[in-house]
Amino acid sequence: MSHIKVLFCGYREWAIETYREISCLDRSDNLDHVEFSFCRNKEVMEHMIKEYSFDAIICAGWSWIIPDEIVENNLVVGIHPSDLPAYAGGSPLQHQIMDNVENTKCTLFRLRKELDAGEIYDKEPLNLSGDNMQLILRRLSRISSELIRRFLINYPNFDVLPNNVVETRKRLQPHESNLIDNLEKLLLSDDVSVKNIYNFIRCKTNPYPNAFIEDETGKLYFEKVKFEGKI
């Protein structure tokens, strides 16, 4: 098996944990032929790609747009926590949770110039239940490690699937965590419920900007939330 060089790019805690896990796999995992490098910001990434040659570049939880020149001239793959092409674009976990999606998939795909629209290499189920995002991100890290492990074992022989993205979601901004503003929107819909409010709050628990309410005296943030369904 030929030696391959991989650049892993990530800065979020779940992505760093994914790197720690995948880079520590031993000979029993058939990855002793893989040499890893790591970076956590855009400037270092672009410098390393310019100075060194990599067989694959893996991005997990990467917020920056990668220059077209890099994705056109390198094998760049990414982790997206949705069943692509569904929920392409920004804040996929939050959008799915607010849409009451409980079971989705994590997708490993090739990055192209078009956002989240490259060929699909692999998918793995991802459960979105739980009272906080830390729990979901731990699941995401574990699943991402398995997807990357399989990718590296199969490299360079892949069966890819098309990715026909029709719609991309926008990344949520901190001001969109305002609970009162969103309650007003919910009241205009037919599906307003306590569980919808719960989903709105829990998908914005740490490390994301917390849901809040605000008046002239200040802001009240919701760091924790719990829901008990009726039997």
Strand content: 15-25%
Whole-number mean pLDDT: 92
**What is the annotated CATH architecture of the largest domain?**
3-Layer(aba) Sandwich
Tally of individual domains:
2
What is the percent of helical residues? Answer: 25-40%
Number of strands: 10
How does the overall form come out from the CA principal axes? elongated
- Separation of the first and last Cα atoms: 55 Å
Low-confidence stretches: none
Structural class: alpha/beta
CATH fold name of the largest domain:
Rossmann fold
From the alpha-carbon coordinates, what is the Rg to the nearest angstrom? 19 Å
The CATH class of the largest domain, by name, is: Alpha Beta
Tally of contiguous helical segments? 7
- The largest sheet has its strands arranged as 2-1-3-4-6-7
One letter per element, helices H and strands E, the order comes to EHEHEHEEHEEHEHHEE
Tell me the CATH superfamily of the largest domain. Answer: Formyl transferase, N-terminal domain
Task: Reconstruct the topology from this structure.
Layout: E1 4-9, H1 13-23, E2 34-39, H2 42-51, E3 56-60, H3 68-73, E4 76-80, E5 88-89, H4 92-98, E6 103-110, E7 120-127, H5 133-154, E8 168-169, H6 179-186, H7 194-202, E9 211-215, E10 218-222
Parallel strand pairs: 1-2, 1-3, 3-4, 5-8
Antiparallel strand pairs: 4-6, 6-7, 9-10
